[in-house]
Write a structure and sequence with these properties.
400 residues; alpha/beta; Rossmann fold; 16% strand; six-stranded parallel beta sheet; 2 domains
Amino acid sequence: MRILQINVVYKVGSTGKIVNEIHNQLLKSGQESFVIYGRGKTISESNVYKTSPDWEGKLQALYGRISGDFYGGAFYSTYKLIKRIKSIAPEVVHLHLMNGNYVNNYRLLSFLAKNNYKTMITLHAEIAYTGICEHAFDCERWKTGCGKCPQVFKKYKSLFFDRTAMEWQKKEKAFAKFSSLTIVSVSAWLQNRAKQSPMFKNRNFYVVGNGVDTAIYKPVNAATLRESLGLKNQKVILHVTPSFKSIVKGGEYVVELAKRLQKENVIVVIVGYDGFKEKLPSNVIPISHTTSQEELAEFYSLANITLLTSKLETFSMVCAESLSCGTPVVGFKAGAPEQIAIAAYSEFVTNGNIDALEQAVRNWLAKDIDCNDVVQKVDNKYSILNMIEGYKRIYEKKYK
């Protein structure tokens, strides 16, 4: 079977790593696998193609802000992408994220539908069925056509226009053309949302959870890391984020919790900190980032608990990685995390309730947790192989 995946990135970020793992496993199993991506470095690998030059990505970002048409444009990149699809002639086209200024969503979808490509789309976020938003939060305009978007000017920085109603209508029209379209969600929570979208009426739905490399994300000896951070016998709370300043990730709650625990023998370690050190309490250790999954596994293994303060998560790789390393997760209810977590080793409180969060954190820090018991309860639930097998079953059932 010849399978083509299309995503904004490859090998980097959560979706880029997922695409890479699916690609590698398909090749190992004797399938013909191809990847097209738009952003990031050009990678010299067989069957892997970057179709969007950096200059057009920047131009498209500017075009979106000026015109309000964030998912149109990208004419040259989309031409290259469609030309590459024709040359590959895939039996299955597997779409992932189509944001990131690398493709004209409507031209691509219309091309795939018109030429009867068997297409599946994995929902990693809510972009596919909203006018523009990755996360719609409490807004329900996406159920009826968007418009008057509360995020378009502030978050997405449109300079003049709110064209979210137009974007929504163009997506609906493009999706309606498909005779074969399968919708895969990374969590049951996200699938429930997608099923409420008029765009996906009478489509086939599946859930395939994201996978982590359990050969890396497992309990490891973190003594060297503890020493390098100057830690002795303190309890450690870990917060891992791609951007601490993001309003979605709830960094302000991490800081507030640290302040409340300053008199305790507790250290808060933030991996992914992109704020200002002088504003942090003295019991916080900020780490700007790590590009090493092995090092990240050490941070999880170092911690007594991992703290999740997101406003919304459609899956939560942090939750899966932490539990795979034997570290319990405590945080706010954010949609998917409380569904995918191991109930015996996690606790989620009402989002934004810092008092309840503090109490939950204190309770878990007081517990003596056997990390091996946590891993036994996880039982490879989040393994890459489970994810790959989930996708293979869909490929074979739907398209063989």
